[in-house]
Write a structure and sequence with these properties.
The protein has one domain. 71% of the residues lie in helices and 5% in strands. The chain is built from eight helices and three strands.
């Protein structure tokens, strides 16, 4: 009768055990993706809810007045006879109201959701929050200035331009700023802090060169 080979059977068991441990890495990745999605959706929904709450109570008058004042600076520099009073910008033949929907709060909330959901250090997160508040705020002021100029020079274009900028502003303001933060802040900082060290020897080796005696054998 042929003899059994227990050595091969043991090797098969060890291979099967190693195969059962491999799905751990994809499971961690799935949890990280799920965590990102949950944080992003939660913070974005909170920003949208805050915007609708401000619209319902006609609140944030001070911030809206500041946006109207800053948004009127460029039209006045171009010689348009416009002036800001409270949260309203008056141009010849039309008055523009900076509502909570035009204040950029929704786009700012979406940007902050992407920053807070991305796994990185506290310093990088703080830099992302600062970039979002300042960057989205400045882009929103530029949007208000552009609409004021269109209302003064091409009143018939104001409606379509306002609708287009209202729907496209979160995309064109949030996505480029978020990618800028991701590439230039997070990736480069991580490369400078952890990517400069030389790789160590493979696992199970000491990194020393073998002796000539061993090489000859």
């Amino acid at each position: 009768m042929p003899r059994r080979r227990p050595g091969k059977r043991k090797a098969g068991r060890s291979t099967g055990g190693a195969g059962r441990k491999t799905p751990a890495a994809p499971s961690r990745q799935n949890r990280a993706i799920l965590k990102f999605v949950l944080i992003f959706v939660t913070v974005s929904a909170a920003g949208i809810a805050l915007e609708y709450d401000l619209m319902a109570h006609d609140a944030a008058q001070g911030y809206r007045a500041l946006v109207a004042l800053a948004g009127n600076w460029l039209p006045r520099a171009l010689g348009i006879g416009s002036h800001a009073g409270g949260s309203t910008i008056n141009v010849p033949g039309r008055s523009l109201e900076v509502t909570p929907e035009c204040s950029g709060i929704e786009a700012m909330g979406v940007f902050l959701a992407g920053v807070l959901a991305f796994p990185c250090g506290k310093r990088n997160t703080l830099l992302g929050v600062i970039l979002g508040v300042i960057g989205v705020g400045l882009l929103n002021i530029l949007r208000v200035s552009g609409l004021t100029i269109v209302a003064a020079w091409r009143p018939q274009w104001f409606g379509p331009t306002h609708d287009a900028l209202t729907h496209l502003f979160p995309l064109f303001a949030v996505l480029p700023l978020w990618l800028l933060w991701l590439v230039f802040v997070v990736r480069r900082r991580n490369a400078h802090t952890g990517g400069g060290s030389a790789p160590g020897p493979p696992q199970g080796t000491s990194g020393r060169k073998p002796s000539p005696h061993l090489q000859r054998n």
